[in-house]
Design brief:
The protein has about 325 residues and is of the alpha/beta class. The protein contains eleven helices and nine strands. The strands form two sheets. It has a five-stranded parallel sheet. Strands 2-1-3-4 form a four-stranded parallel sheet, sandwiched between helices. The protein starts with about 25 loop residues before the first helix and ends in a 5-residue tail after the last helix.
Length: about 325
């Protein structure tokens, strides 16, 4: 692992009230988050992980979709910074009784929270919420649109292991069409100067992929050739109205990451995956558990640190 010394925070304010996507973030904004998150990594490895700069603040986790990694890391991030964290159970809330998102937003706003982290199956839901509340809104994943904190933690993982992002060749493989993680990463990694490739069957490739500033590939071996980083994605069946691949077995044969396909990447290439991992479909277990190449558990650790940094900066403490 490349050990980086975090740069000093910029004296300029973090000019964002919300984090709804990668659009609108500058390179300076991104590196402020990454530099601050790097400091939290070390703090989170200490016996005393508390850094109560958000004491007295309230954070609501509003998740309309199931989540393990993202919701838990937001909860840990808030609690380690001293905030009161409320996990709202949508399955037992008034939403299930027919309440609209706007009514839910107005109800929560009346409770005067300081942050709302929201995950929603509809693209644009966090943007709508942000227009209706007085607090900071963080997009924890909206439909097939974006997942900005995931892209930030992926960037931090790459930076810590490769020492840089600019100039690297990074391949994102799998269900690009339905992936909010892919969209946020394409925007963020190209912003930071990486050469990004997307690899998928034609049925899982977005229209006009070049518009994202990336190179599309329809063959795994060609796409993986000489890559520094390989990111795998699961097939998001929850967003599909019909089958996009003939069978799981055939998909893994052509598109699943295994040792043979991985051999086309650089010898020191690392593997990322946002999870959940579907072993034997997007990636072979042998590679997923390879501690020399798989950075999947590192991503989980980076996730807490990145979300702490985002909360601190949105609260104005990073100015």
């Amino acid at each position: 692992m490349v050990k980086l010394k975090a740069a000093s925070a910029s004296p300029s304010p973090f000019a964002h009230r919300h984090l709804l996507g990668i659009d609108g973030l500058s390179r300076e904004d991104v590196y402020r988050v990454l530099d601050l998150a790097a400091q939290y990594i070390d703090k989170n490895r200490q016996p005393d992980k508390k850094h109560p700069i958000l004491k007295g603040r309230t954070m609501i986790n509003l998740f309309f979709e199931d989540s393990t990694r993202t919701r838990t890391s937001f909860e840990l991030a808030g609690k380690r910074l001293g905030a009161d964290v409320i996990n709202m159970s949508v399955s037992s809330s008034s939403v299930k009784k027919g309440e609209t998102l706007i009514d839910t937003a107005m109800t929560l706003n009346a409770m005067h929270p300081d942050f709302i982290a929201v995950r929603h199956p509809e693209s644009g839901a966090p943007h709508l919420l942000a227009r209706k509340v007085n607090c900071s809104v963080i997009n924890a994943g909206d439909g097939c649109h974006e997942h900005p904190t995931q892209a930030l933690l992926d960037a931090l993982t790459i930076q810590r292991h490769k020492g840089k992002i600019e100039g690297l060749t990074i391949a994102i493989c799998g269900d690009i069409l339905h992936s909010r993680v892919a969209r946020s990463n394409m925007k963020l990694l190209t912003l930071l100067g990486a050469k990004v490739r997307i690899i998928a069957p034609a049925t899982l490739m977005p229209a006009s992929p070049q518009s994202f500033g990336v190179e599309p590939y329809y063959d795994m071996r060609k796409g993986l050739k000489d890559c520094d980083v390989v990111m795998t994605l699961r097939i998001k069946t929850e967003y599909m109205q019909s089958s996009f691949v003939p069978s799981a077995r055939e998909y893994f044969h052509f598109w699943g990451l295994d040792r043979e396909k991985m051999s086309y990447a650089k010898k020191d290439a690392i593997i990322l995956d946002p999870g959940p991992i579907i072993r034997g479909l997007q990636i072979d277990s042998d590679l997923a558990d390879d501690i020399a190449r798989s950075m999947i558990l590192d991503q989980v650790e980076m996730g807490v640190a990145v979300r702490q940094a985002v909360l601190e900066l949105l609260a104005g403490e990073g100015k």
